[in-house]
C-alpha cells in the first residue's frame, strides 16, 4: 500500500517554531521562543466564573451552533471593535476557531494556486506556511521601524506586470510579529489608496493592538478605509483574536469583512469545522459581558511593558552596540539584529546548552532570510528570567565567537 | 474595488441542509431535518462537573495546547477505541475540531484538484461539499440495505482506467448518514482487500456506531484491516467524534491513521487552527474519565431506538406501501423512498406550511439525485412530535397529490 499525498503534502516541512517545542520542556530552560501569552496573567477566576455561568443553560449550551457564531458573542465583539475605532454591526463579524482559522479561510476563499500574495517580511511563520501549502506565490515586502514600507510597496506594485500583481497583502500593522513595529497613520492611509487602485485585499491581522505600552492609539486599517468607502467596497479583511488578551485555549478569533467575503467565508467554514465550539463561545461571551476584560488587558499591558523594558535594558547592557533593535511600544516581540555578522542560528545550539531558547530569524522569511536576526518574546518569562535568559544568550554569543576565533 | 475570489468560491452554493435553518425556528415547527442529537439526552450535569474540574488547573488550563491534542484526552480516546475493537496507542490519535475538520484535513493532505474520490451515495452533504470545493472528481458508488455495494464497487474499480481510479473512498459504514444502514463484515473484509489491491485510502467516518439499538457489534473497517497489515500499511483513515454521544458544542473529533498520514495531518492542522480548544479537550477528557459516558450512551441508544420505532410505525400506518424504507438498527436517520412517484422536494413547501421540515433526498447526491427520496432524523423530536410530524408529512403528500390531480 503506497499512498500518494497531495502535492503540497508530499514532503511538507513542519512549523519552524513548533520544532523548537522539545527544547522548551528541558529543566531550567528559559523560553523567548513561543508567541505564548503569560498564563500568570490570565484571569483564571473570571474565566471559571464565566464558564460556570455559560454552562447553566442546560442541554442547549451543548448543542451545535450557527456557523457565523453565537449572537451574544458577536455583539460583545462588535462593542470591542467599536472601542478600537472600528464600527461594524455584529452581523458583519464571523467568529472563527482562532484567527489562524480566519486566515486559512481568507486563503481558501481568495487564492488560487499560483496567485500572488504580498507579505510584509519578516512575517509570522504560520502565515507563510499557510500560503506556501496553498501553492501561492509569496512576494516579500520589506518593513522598517514604522512597519510595512509602503513607498517600496508602491514601487513594487507599479513595476509589476498584471499577472504578478497581488490578490492579497498580509500585514500585522499594530505591534507586528516578529518586529513589534506599528504602521503609521500616513502609511495606513496610503496603503488603503493603493489597495483601491490596484484592487488587492489587505489582510489586517490584529491580535496585539490592545497590548499597548503607551496611550497613543491608531485606527485599524479597516476603519481608515471605511472613511472613504462603503462596507461593500472596503478592501480590508480584518482578523483578530482573544488569544493574546483573554486565553488562547478558548480558540476564539473573528473576521470583519465585506458581505461578499463574509458569505463565502461562512460557506468555507461549514466544510472546515461546521462551527466554532459553542462552549468556548459562550464562555468568551460571558467573560466579555462580566466587565472584567478591561482590567485584565490593562494589567497585561503593564506587565508586558515591564518585561519589554527589562529585556531591552539587558540586551543593551550585555551586548551594547553588537545588537540593534527598536524598542517595541506594544505587543509581545522584540526583533533583533546582530551587527557584527554573528548568525543567531549558528549560536542556537550553544544557547540551548546554556538554557535559553528563541527563534532564529530565518523562520520569518519565505525566502532570502537575513541570517543575522532573531525574535525574542518577552511575554511568557518574568523579569528575572528575562535577565538570566539574555545573559545566557550573551554568553552563547561569546562562546560561539571564541570557537569561531579558535577555528580560524 | 472588485474582488476576484478563488475558483471554487466564485459562486459557491451553501449547505442544502443549513439553508433549511430559517424554517426550524418557526413556531410549532417539528424538525426531522438536522443531524442534531437531542439536547434533552446530554448529560448537562456531568458536563458541568467536568468543566468545573477541568478549569481548576489555573492559568495553564487556558494556554495553547499541542497540535496533536491533549495527552489525557488522547488516552481516554484510545480506551474508547479499544472498546470498539480498534486497538491503537494514544500516539496514533490526532484530536480534531469535530470530525468535520478531520475530513477536511484528509482532503487537504491527500487530494489534488482533479483527483478522484469515490463516495457512497447517497452521502453526507458536507462531505460532498468539501470534496467539491477542493475540486475533486466525485464518483458515486451505490448502496443497498447492507451499506456500500462492494460488488458494484469492485466492478467499477476493475473497469476504471488508471487515471480514473480513486485516491480515497468515503463511507459511513455503521448506521450511515443518510441511510441508517450497516456494512456487513463480509463487505468490510472485501473492501479492505480492494483498497490494498487498488491502493486507495478508505475514509471510515464513524460518528454513530455507539448509537446501536441491538447488541450486535461489528469491527470498524480499520480494525478489520489491522488483522492483515501493519499500522504503517493500514489503508484506512478512521474518523470519529463526541458530537453524537456527548455534546456537539465541544467540537471534539479525532482521526486514527498511519504515521505518514498523521504526521502530515498535524502539519495541515497547524495552519488550520493551531490546536483544538484545550478548554473543550479538558472538559471532554474529564467527562470521559468520570465514568458517566457508558450510561449516557446507553440512555441515548434506548431513547433513539424508541423514537425510531415510533417513526417507522407512524410512517407505515400513515403511508403504508406508498413509502419504502429499511428500519435502522442504530444511528439517527431513516431514509425513505416514495414508491408512487411523489417527489418529496415538491411536497416540501406544503409540509413546511403544515409544520414539519425534513431534508429532501437530492441534498445527498453530488449528481443524478433520486428525486423520490427523503431523510428523516428521529433524534431531536420526541415520540409525540414524531407522530404529529409524520401525520403532517402524510397530509402534505395528500394535498400535493390532490393538487396534482386537479392540475391534470
Automatic annotation (TrEMBL), chains A, B:
What keywords does the record list, in alphabetical order? Aminotransferase, Pyridoxal phosphate, Transferase
Q: Which domain of life is it from?
A: Bacteria
Q: InterPro entries this protein is in?
A: Aminotransferase_I/II_large (IPR004839), Class-I_PLP-dep_aminotransf (IPR050859), PyrdxlP-dep_Trfase (IPR015424), PyrdxlP-dep_Trfase_major (IPR015421), PyrdxlP-dep_Trfase_small (IPR015422)
UniProt-listed Gene3D superfamilies: Aspartate Aminotransferase, domain 1, Type I PLP-dependent aspartate aminotransferase-like (Major domain)
One Pfam entry for this protein is Aminotran_1_2
Q: Which GO terms describe its molecular function?
A: 2-aminoadipate transaminase activity
**Enzyme superclass (EC):** transferase
Has keyword DNA repair? no
List, for all copies, the residue spans of the domain called Aminotransferase class I/classII large: 47-392
EC number assigned by the record: 2.6.1.39
**Cofactor requirements of the protein:** pyridoxal 5'-phosphate
Q: Does the keyword Ligase apply?
A: no
Protein name (Swiss-Prot/TrEMBL):
2-aminoadipate transaminase
What are the leading ranks of the lineage?
A: Bacteria, Pseudomonadati, Pseudomonadota, Betaproteobacteria, Burkholderiales
Amino acid at each position: 500500500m503506497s499512498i500518494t499525498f497531495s502535492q503540497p503534502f508530499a514532503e511538507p516541512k513542519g512549523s519552524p517554531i513548533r520544532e523548537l517545542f522539545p527544547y522548551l520542556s528541558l529543566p531550567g530552560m528559559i523560553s523567548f521562543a513561543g508567541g505564548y501569552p503569560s498564563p500568570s496573567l490570565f484571569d483564571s477566576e473570571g474565566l471559571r466564573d464565566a464558564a460556570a455561568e455559560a454552562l447553566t443553560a442546560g442541554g442547549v449550551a451543548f448543542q451545535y451552533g450557527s456557523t457565523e457564531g453565537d449572537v451574544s458573542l458577536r455583539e460583545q465583539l462588535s462593542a470591542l471593535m467599536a472601542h478600537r475605532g472600528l464600527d461594524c454591526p455584529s452581523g458583519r463579524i464571523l467568529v472563527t476557531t482562532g484567527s489562524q482559522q480566519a486566515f486559512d479561510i481568507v486563503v481558501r476563499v481568495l487564492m488560487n494556486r499560483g496567485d500572488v500574495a504580498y507579505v510584509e517580511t519578516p512575517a509570522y511563520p504560520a502565515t507563510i506556511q499557510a500560503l506556501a501549502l496553498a501553492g501561492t506565490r509569496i512576494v516579500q515586502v520589506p518593513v522598517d521601524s514604522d512597519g510595512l514600507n509602503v513607498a517600496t510597496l508602491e514601487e513594487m506594485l507599479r513595476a509589476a506586470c498584471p499577472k504578478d500583481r497581488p490578490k492579497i497583502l498580509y500585514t500585522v500593522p499594530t505591534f507586528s510579529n516578529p518586529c513589534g513595529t506599528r504602521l503609521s497613520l500616513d502609511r495606513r492611509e496610503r496603503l488603503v489608496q493603493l489597495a483601491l487602485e490596484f484592487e488587492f485585499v489587505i489582510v489586517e491581522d490584529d491580535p496585539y493592538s490592545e497590548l499597548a505600552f503607551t496611550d497613543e492609539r491608531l485606527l485599524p486599517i479597516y476603519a481608515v478605509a471605511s472613511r472613504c468607502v462603503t462596507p461593500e467596497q472596503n478592501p480590508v479583511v480584518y482578523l483578530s483574536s482573544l488569544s493574546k488578551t483573554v486565553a488562547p485555549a478558548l480558540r476564539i478569533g473573528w473576521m470583519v469583512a465585506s458581505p461578499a467575503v463574509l458569505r463565502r467565508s461562512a460557506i468555507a467554514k461549514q466544510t472546515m469545522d461546521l462551527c466554532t465550539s459553542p462552549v468556548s463561545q459562550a464562555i468568551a461571551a460571558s467573560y466579555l459581558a462580566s466587565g472584567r476584560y478591561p482590567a485584565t488587558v490593562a494589567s497585561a499591558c503593564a506587565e508586558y511593558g515591564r518585561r519589554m523594558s527589562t529585556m531591552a535594558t539587558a540586551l543593551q547592557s550585555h551586548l551594547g552596540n553588537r545588537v540593534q533593535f527598536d524598542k517595541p511600544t506594544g505587543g509581545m516581540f522584540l526583533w533583533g539584529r546582530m551587527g557584527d555578522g554573528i548568525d543567531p542560528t549558528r549560536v542556537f545550539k550553544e544557547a540551548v546548552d546554556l538554557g535559553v531558547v528563541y527563534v532564529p530569524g530565518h523562520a520569518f522569511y519565505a525566502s532570502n532570510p537575513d541570517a543575522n536576526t532573531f525574535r525574542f518574546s518577552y511575554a511568557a518569562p518574568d523579569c528575572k528570567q528575562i535577565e538570566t535568559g539574555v545573559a545566557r544568550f550573551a554568553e552563547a554569543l561569546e562562546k560561539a565567537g571564541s570557537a569561531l576565533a579558535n577555528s580560524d
